[in-house]
Amino acid sequence: SRLLKKFEAAFCSVFSNVAAKLYSYLYAVALMSHI
User: Fold this and answer.
1) 1-35, pLDDT tens digit by residue?
2) How far apart are CA 19 and CA 17, in angstroms?
3) Phi, psi of 17 (to 5 degrees)
4) How many Å apart are CA 30 and CA 26, to the nearest integer?
5) Is the sign of the CA dihedral 5, 10, 13, 18 positive or negative?
6) pTM for the full predicted model
């Protein structure tokens, strides 16, 4: 149960990190396509 909790926290942090990178990438692409 504790291991699952730790895995869940790690997955959460990795997912938010990936989501932030993807969001900034999409934002940069949208910005470049508007120029």
Assistant:
1) 899 999 999 999 999 999 999 999 999 999 999 86
2) 5
3) -65, -45
4) 6
5) negative
6) 0.61
Angle at Cα 21 formed by Cα 13 and Cα 15, nearest 5°? Answer: 25
Total residue count of the chain as it appears in this document: 35
DSSP string, 1-35: -HHHHHHHHHHHHHHHHHHHHHHHHHHHHHHHHH-
Which residue matches tokens 């730790």?
6
Task: Give the amino acid at 6.
Answer: K
Alpha-carbon gap, residue 15 to 8, rounded angstroms: 10
